[in-house]
Amino acid sequence: MHQLLQRQIEKFLPPEYLENKEFNEFIHAVNRTYQSFEKEHKITARAFEVSDKENMEANASLQLEIVNREASINNLKEAIHIIKDKQHSIEEEDVLVLSNFVKNELAKRRNAESVFSSIINNLKSGILLENEKQKVLYCNSQFSCLFKLDEEKETLQGNNFIPRLLHISKLFVHPETFLKRVEQIMINKQDISSETLEMKDGRILERSYATIYHNGEFKGHFWNYWDITEKKKAELEIIRQKRFFDEVLNNIPADIAVFDKDHTYLFLNPSAIKNETTREWIIGKTDFDYCTSKGISQEIALKRRKIFEETIQAKKEIQFVDEHPHQLGSKFVLRKFFPHFENNDLKFVIGYGIDITTVKKVELKLEDAMNKLKKTNEELEQFAYVASHDLQEPLRMVSSFLSLLEKKYSKDLDEKAMSYINFAVDGSKRMRQIILDLLEFSRVGRMGDHEMEDLDLNKIVEDVIKLQMQQIMDTGAKINFGVLPQIKNFRIPLTQIIQNLVSNALKYSKEKVSPILDISVKDKGLEWEFAFKDNGIGINPKYFDKIFVIFQRLHNKNTYSGTGIGLSVVKKTIENLGGEIWVESEEGIGTVFFFTLPKNIPSYI
Questions:
Q1: What's the pLDDT band for 377 if we cut at 50, 70, 90?
Q2: Rounded distance between C-alpha atoms, residue 120 and residue 137, angstroms
Q3: Residues 142 and 156: beta-carbon distance below 8 Å
Q4: Which terminus has fewer CB within 10 Å in the chain: N or C?
Q5: What is the arithmetic mean of pLDDT over 540-555?
Q6: What is the pLDDT of residue 519?
Q7: Contact 2, 28 (CB under 8 A)
Q8: Whether residue 19 has pLDDT greater than 60
Q9: Helix 566-576 × helix 491-507 angle, to 10°
Q10: Which long-range contacts (CB under 8 A, 24 or more apart) does 601-605 make?
Q11: What mean pLDDT comes out for the span 62-68?
Q12: Range 239-254 average pLDDT
């Protein structure tokens, strides 16, 4: 891809634009145009270079010819004057010297004419030299070629050129106009340059004309024609390219500006300033001029100038946000400066701006909502803590008095009364456990109490196994894990997650079947993926969502103990760490709990 187009795409276009198929086709079409334009530009530049060089050489040769001719004439006049001078006695030696002098002068002239003829004949422009009576003194091969003349240049020389004009005129789009213009030029005898002529075969010629005078006396006409078809094509392509890029820039829904090194505007698109008069006025001016004309504070101009100078000094883009206060609310514009250097020389700076008012307002609302949510969460945590603490005290009192009642009056109460007391004691114990679980759940997510650290997962799993060793030994369980990676995270929350999942695998095992738990971790690029696979009783897919809801149980307390808070705590902890959890299971086969944790923990945690 063309380097200039590649740089523009990287600076101005968001990556998601390139995923659009139609937009990609458009970019490829632009790229082909860039390459074609560059090729034709090189051809045109070369044509200009060759044409300028040829004209300079031709002019130099003409000047040399004129100088030599004048010198020869002057020398010959001097010689003739000596011969005619009656008072001067001519000796044989003088005549010999004069003869040799004349021969040398003629030789010089023939040599100059030869050089002149060689240069003119090799020019790529068509040259025609006529005397005052329009007889051809000289024309080169390119002239005959341009106008498709059958006669050789030698045949043309010495003949009147007027009869050939009629033949030549028929080659042009407007023959009569061509003839009238030639007649007008010769009558006026006024030098002209760069007249454009259109030919019927599509070629475009450029014509120049110069009168030839010697000692103030008119001596002839000098015509110069050259084919500028390719040059014109290149110019038209440049115009087309400019029109195309103007269309693109003028229709981009973003502010586009180009500045010189002094922060003066060179270009602005309609998105930057909609009023065309103002847009034309600001070219060649600065933000300070604009602020003055609008009678507004120079503060924003000072800010932009400071950032403009910083981006030039840093030689890289700088991004900032402009805030424009309005009665109905501020407008926010995200701006960027892109300095363009060539060979360490600053050529221009591109300014880019896009209205982010809606996004900014959403961000401000979100920030406000987050602050309110944070405050609400803190209040809820405090409420949960106070509530759980206050609820535990009456429960302890109920439990204590029931125990005293059972101890003091057990002999006086029948079996039914004792069962009621047992139910009440058991209920108060379970209520106390629920309150403790609720308190624990309310504390999940308070990462501010912990610090990030490098963790060895092997060590954490080993510590969890030690804590569960009694249950592992009772059930004959096997916990398998290979070499687990080291990660950066919070130790206590991650330990709680692993402990809950290990405990679940041991608890929900098949009867008379030793539990087997396989723990693995995969590197998924930006995150770690954990898997806890067991051979337990499994879960019906219709309950996959229910198991992560607080206090939701799939079994009664007599079969499997607990309050149903474990997996809800795991889910909340993982989500607070920026990850997610899901389950795959089949009843009677086993269950796999998957969860992910990002390698870079989000900053809001």
A1: confident
A2: 13
A3: no
A4: N
A5: 68
A6: 92
A7: no
A8: yes
A9: 150
A10: 601/452, 601/488, 601/489, 601/577, 602/578, 605/447, 605/576, 605/577, 605/578
A11: 60
A12: 81
DSSP track, 250-270: HHSSSEEEEE-TTS-EEEE-T
Closest CA to 123 of 59, 51, 195: 51
Q: Which residues contact 482 (CB under 8 A, 6 or more apart)?
A: 520
Q: What pLDDT, on the 0 to 100 scale, is given for residue 374?
A: 80
Question: φ, ψ for residue 77 (rounded to 5)?
Answer: -60, -40
Token output for 239: 């115009």
521 DSSP β-pair partners = 530
Is 448-598 a CATH 3.90.550.10 domain?
no
- Per-residue H/E/C for 371-421: HHHHHHHHHHHHHHHHHHHHHHHHHHHHHHHHHHHHHHHCCCCCHHHHHHH
Structure tokens at 223: 């015509």
User: What single DSSP character describes residue 135?
Assistant: B
- Please choose, from the candidates 241, 242, 235, the residue with its C-alpha nearest in 3D space to the C-alpha of residue 206: 235
Distance CA 224, CA 210 (A): 9
Tens digit of pLDDT for each residue in 430-487?
666 666 656 665 555 555 556 778 889 999 899 888 888 888 888 899 999 988 888 8
The CATH code for residues 252-355 is 3.30.450.20
Side-chain half-sphere CA neighbours of 360 within 13 A: 14
Angle made by CA atoms 162, 163, 166, in degrees to the nearest 5: 95
Identify whether the C-beta of residue 491 lies closer than 8 Å to the C-beta of residue 455.
yes
Instruction: Look up residue 139 and give its two tokens.
Output: 């024309």
pLDDT at position 89 is 44
pLDDT value at residue 92: 42
Amino acid 175 reads P
pLDDT greater than 90 at residue 414: no
Measured in whole angstroms, the distance separating CA 185 from the mean position of its chain's CA atoms is: 55
pLDDT tens digits, 68-112 = 656 655 655 554 454 445 444 434 444 445 445 545 655 555 555
Domain definitions of the chain by residue range: 1-123, 252-355, 361-443, 448-598
Cα 121 to Cα 127: distance, rounded to the nearest angstrom: 8
Range of weakest confidence among 323-332, 361-370, 510-519: 323-332
Buried b (16+ CB within 10 A) or exposed e, 56-82: eebeebbeebeebeeebeeeeeebeee
- Angle at which helix 175-188 crosses helix 162-169, to 10 degrees, equals 140
DSSP letter string, 535-583: -SS---GGGTTGGGSTT--SS-TTTS-S-S-HHHHHHHHHHHTT--EEE
Instruction: Please give the DSSP secondary-structure letter assigned to residue 321.
Output: E
| Cα distance between residue 318 and residue 336, in whole Å | 6
User: Cα 114 from chain centroid?
Assistant: 60
Report which listed range, 281-285, 334-338, 553-557, is most confident.
Answer: 281-285
Of 385, 399, 398, residue with least CA distance to 435 = 385
H or E stretch including 234? helix 229-251
Listed residue (293, 294, 289) closest to 304, CA to CA: 289
